[in-house]
Specification:
There is one protein chain. α1 packs across α2. By secondary structure, the protein is an alpha+beta fold. It is globular, with a radius of gyration of 14 Å. The protein has a single domain, classed as Gyrase A, domain 2 (2-Layer Sandwich), CATH 3.30.1360.10. A four-stranded antiparallel β-sheet has the order 1-2-4-3, with helices on one face. It contains two helices and four strands; from the N terminus they run ββαββα.
């Protein structure tokens, strides 16, 4: 996965996700919105087959990049728990 930060300020980040689709972006956006310090989290695709952009804006208490990283960690942890539950013993 290739990422490109398009905009970064104290309360806002725009990240381009090259080669990703709506499935991952929907999951990530939904997880980010669980954070009470998030004001806006949305995935934007200009055209049907273009690379999606993630836009995250916080209420000023948290760094938006940290919010994205934390959401990714929670998704990863959930995936790890599922994998461990499916192990054949």
């Amino acid at each position: 996965m290739e990422l490109k930060v398009l905009e970064l300020s104290k309360n806002r980040v725009r990240i381009l996700f090259r080669g990703e689709d709506n499935t991952f972006m929907s999951l990530l956006t939904e997880e980010i919105l669980k954070d009470p310090d998030v004001d806006i989290a949305q995935s934007v695709m200009e055209f049907q087959y273009s690379d999606p952009e993630l836009v995250v804006s916080t209420k000023g208490k948290r760094d938006p990049v940290a919010v994205v990283k934390d959401a990714c960690a929670r998704i990863g942890q959930a995936c790890t728990e599922i994998k461990e539950s499916l192990r054949v013993r």
